[in-house]
Design a protein that fits this description.
Shape: elongated
CATH architecture of the largest domain: Orthogonal Bundle
Number of domains: 2
Number of helices: 4
Number of strands: 3
Strand content: 15-25%
Order of helices and strands: EHHEEHH
Structural class: alpha+beta
Mean pLDDT: 91
CATH topology of the largest domain: Arc Repressor Mutant, subunit A
Helix content: 55-70%
Strand order of the largest sheet: 1-3-2
Radius of gyration: 19 Å
Largest sheet: 3 strands, antiparallel
Low-confidence stretches: none
Length: about 90
């Protein structure tokens, strides 16, 4: 598996603080989905890699993404219709 440095992950995932990303990565490590390697360097460097268990989640996520992309227009339409119906009822 490819190792990713923490700083690269932080740059790719927008809208998350370093503290929250660290907490999530530690949870994934605890679950056995990733391995984290911390290097005693200045500045410290951390790399993360998927475990075989973590990699086994890729295929289902790709399937879910495909489903969401296929149905995005329909979902957007349903949300708009729902919001309009409920907005009119509350007025």
């Amino acid at each position: 598996m490819v190792a990713h440095q923490f700083s690269a992950l932080r740059n790719e995932i927008t809208g998350v603080t370093a503290k929250v990303l660290t907490a999530n990565l530690r949870d994934l490590e605890r679950d056995g989905l990733i391995t984290r390697t911390v290097y005693a360097e200045v500045p410290p460097r951390t790399e993360c890699s998927l475990t075989p268990l973590g990699a086994s989640r890729i295929e289902p996520f790709i399937a879910i993404r495909g489903w969401a992309e296929t149905h995005a227009v329909e979902i957007h339409h349903n949300r708009s219709r729902h919001d309009q119906t409920h907005r009119a009822a509350s007025e």
